[in-house]
Design a protein that fits this description.
Distance between the termini: 44 Å
Strand content: under 5%
Strand order of the largest sheet: 1-2-3
Structural class: mainly alpha
Length: 233
């Protein structure tokens, strides 16, 4: 009863050609996977947690195994409306080395392939795990830079207020906190955005996997944003 226990023997027979197609997709998408690997492992990476996402998705599918097993599974030819443009986008992005488009094309292709192979009902039940896969994609540069800047400033302002609360005299100019004998420059590595991304990812997974009322689980996820800012500050 592993992560794919929701599949019956006949399901595997139906899926065999699709599994082969996904293997070919992995070969096609090798430049994207190589780009992701670089982003995950480079110094000061924001995505050191990302290699764990496929394992978390497998855990999510296992968590919903009974519901997924009960869903009738049949190929949905309507998925070709999404799959063919997604493949075209992936090929175009790889040819032009448009990294953000590469990630979008690959993830759209994977989701469309699951839809094609297992059907609309399955996709509805597995919607959250499929959406969670998108957290593997590195953010586009402009989005990452803007987000980092906003979190950097919030962390700096909160750190300044914490110092004031401890009766330290400070002067805040931009992202520099000046004290009587010390100046603290809050640079990008200290912004806290890396912590925020990881905490949001794992809190979303935890909120999905735990039992409880939806409002409490949503509150658990929402609390990760102020918590990360407080911890970083």
């Amino acid at each position: 009863r592993g992560p794919l226990a929701f599949l019956h023997k006949q399901d595997w027979q139906t899926l065999a050609p699709f599994v082969a197609a996904l293997a070919l997709l992995a070969v096609l998408a090798w430049p994207v996977l190589r780009f992701w690997g670089y982003e995950y492992t480079k110094p000061e990476s924001y995505y050191g947690h990302a290699p764990l996402i496929p394992l978390i998705v497998a855990l999510m599918l296992w968590h919903r195994r009974d519901a997924l097993r009960a869903v009738p599974k049949a190929p949905a030819l309507g998925a070709l409306v999404l799959l063919l443009p997604a493949l075209a986008l992936l090929v175009f992005a790889i040819k032009t080395q448009a990294e953000a488009m590469e990630s979008t094309g690959l993830l759209l292709t994977v989701c469309a392939a699951v839809w094609l192979a297992l059907g609309t009902r399955f996709v509805r039940v597995a919607a959250f795990p499929l959406a969670f896969l998108w957290l593997m994609a590195p953010l586009p540069g402009p989005v990452l830079n803007d987000s980092t800047l906003h979190v950097q400033m919030l962390s700096t302002v909160l750190a300044d207020k914490l110092l004031h609360g401890m009766t330290f005299g400070t002067t805040l100019v931009g992202n520099v906190i000046t004290m009587e004998n010390y100046s603290l420059f809050v640079d990008v590595p200290c912004s806290g955005f890396k912590l925020l991304l990881a905490l949001l990812t794992f809190s979303a997974a935890f909120a999905y996997l735990v039992d409880g009322k939806p409002a409490r689980r949503l509150l658990l996820f929402a609390f990760s944003l102020p918590l990360s800012l407080l911890v970083n500050s």
